[in-house]
Amino acid sequence: MAQSCETHRTDANCPSMSANTTMPMSRAISSQQNRSQPARRPMATERRLSKTVPLFQMRHCLGWLLVLLGCACPALGQVRPPTPSGTTSSGAALGNAALGNANSPTDPSDTAPSVLLALQQSLIDAIAKAESSVVAVARSRRNEQPKLLDPDYVPTEFATGVVIDAQGLILTNAHVLGKPAESDYAVWVSGRPFYAKIKALDPWVDLAILQIEANDLTPIAMGDGDDVKKGQFVICLGNPYAIARDGNVSATWGIVSNLARKAPGPRLVDRVTNAGETVHQFGTLIQTDAKLVHGTSGGAMLNLQGEMIGLTTSLAAVEGYDRSTGYAIPMNKPMKRVIEQLKQGKQPEYGFLGVAPTNLELSQVQNHKYGAKLDSVEAGTPAAKYGLRRDDVVTHVDGTPVRSHLDLIRLVSLSPVGSEVEFQLLRQNALLRRQEQLTKSVVLTKRYVAAHEQGLWTEPIREWRGISVDYATAIPAFYQHVAEIDPEGCLVVADVHQDSPGWTAGLRPGVFVTHVAGLRVVTPAAFHTAVENQGDTPVTLRATSPIKNSLEVTVAPQ
Question: Which residue of 4, 147, 184, 415 shows the fewest CB atoms closer than 10 Å?
């Protein structure tokens, strides 16, 4: 509590007695006599009462509680906390009213119920604002579509989705869609049934976009997932047990219990290929005590303004862990960027630095040190190019503190490819025998994501004469190919169509391209600009491969 309540007061400070009040003579004499007598010993009952919290203090504390409710409800914006002098303020008045004090300046029959009704109305308004944008999702085995939309059919595989575009785009969790090659999907929007197709699915962030044939939908209002605070009231809308097909989504509410939580369950990750890894294992999730059961994955987590601040997932219930815990993927800046790429049917890209980070030693953490130590810095990566070194300690990424190696991986991975990121470092100076603070700006390349092998994208990959290229760092088992990568920068041939001009010229997947017509290229965009500038003429590419250290190939026109 901000300040303690005074238990005892002088008459001069008592609000029920004025300084000008005249005391009757008989009472004054009695008072003088009483002062001359020794103080009587309090009775046992009085002693017990003296150990309890005074009634005023109880009212004062309850007033603070109602003030906090007022902060959550716009209708309570005029409520003020108790004043330091102890005089009755709006907050104390609310406390008095809740305790039924007849002398309160606020009518107790109005104040306490109105506070609760205002909070209730905020919940009602938020739900009403968002519920038409929350949909039911179901899937079945391939070739069972007619059964999916049968009103009497109850699906056994179901989830929730959120409308994010009026032209029929639905956001949901990737994990609820199962195996796309073996599944059909349906969506119910305010009770209206539609068949659905996957436009994009990224298992690494557990996000997917469904497309339905509709152009009159109401997109949900997006809030700021970066502003979510622990203790904040939230509302979750979903489709538990597939009951929301009739258009009535279910609501539950609670508070934000924690932030930046790791996905529950063991990390079943292959350390070489990173198969089974997701970004949420590095600590991205909002934790809530709102009840999320099967079917609520892919639903909307709302603030009291009816804005979506997270995409719910009943991950804990699915995995069989803490069933009282719910999670949501925050609708923050990195996730919104990924969603925009998915809306276009594109494969999202994630940043890459090129280091192997570890946590600090226990003694350092106990002495208030924090950061991620770099065990290695690989040649041919952005970290090496921009001057990061082994044993550097990264303390901040773009101003955000780094508490562990997982923080560093998460912050780098969710940064855009090609973006310039500022790293604050501590580096040991051997001559001065102390650590120096340094700042390094690094342009990130692209990370390889093993989970993308199970992803799905509808936007065609950009090609030129039968070949597609990508960042050299975006290949599987990148660290096994470091010796083949030009430290000045290069690209990798990601795919080559057989019998295409690129195939005929001798290009194969895994070959590294350094130049186009004598011009060095280090990004796919630079490559396509360079080859398009050559027009319909033979183009010479300089490349390196494990078989030949250096080669030049001429790719004929299509």
Answer: 4
